[in-house]
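In this supplementary section we document a worked example of the pipeline. Step one takes a protein sequence of length 262 as its only input; no multiple sequence alignment statistics are reported here. Step two produces a three-dimensional model, which step three serialises into structure tokens for compact storage. The input and output of this example are shown verbatim.
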Amino acid sequence: AGGVPTRAEAALAWSVVENALERDERDPAAIADALVRLETIRAYAPELSDRIALFGAQLEHALGPTRATCARYAEAIESPHTSVAAQARVGRVRCLLDTGHRDGEDALAALERRYPDLPMRTSLHLALAEALEGWSRTRDAIDEYRTIDFEQPGSAEATVARGRLLAIGGRGVRVRALSAAQEVERAERLVRSGPPDLASDEIARLRSATLARPLAAEVALLASRLARVEGRFDDAHALMREARGLEPAVGEDPEAVDGIAE
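The serialised model returned by step three reads:
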């Protein structure tokens, strides 16, 4: 007892930690066990302190982040390994936002400057929007939610954002709707990226709305693309003719005509 763990004990501890981090559904008991196992890894390989700090922060975050969790991430940021430091920077920003720390907003802006192509940008902005609500900055939260739904309408984050907008509106706060042009642009993103059911519903809604002819033509064109993807080639042809009748210029769109069965 109290000695240096064996290689086998350290390997087992590492496996337990990895399994706890990879689970889709967080198991508090498994996470608590993994946190204890981290100390076994620390005793065996103290040179891995940066990874231990990162894993510890991630495990604590899954249970419910605290200011101490954010400090663990800050420790891991000092890692000489770029991947560890990058994960720690992202984790710290999310931690600050999830704990309602007002430095989180500036930290997110700094993170985006460092990593312009940040892959988890949408989820971080959802965390920012939720933090803004907690800070009683409702108008700013609405803007964030609207941007998420407009830019990534098919994402899981957008589903949450739409729910929050409905809840805020239900409290009597005015939530400005997208313009007709923005709604058509949002529908185009859905047609391109899915999910198909949501794209189909949005196209159907827009086709029943009163739109200016150029916008109505764009919607008919989107409906044609959707019909083509679904294998409804007769409908795709008819919708293309409708789009051209409303706005002849849309007939020049190669994506719309390419691949439609003759």
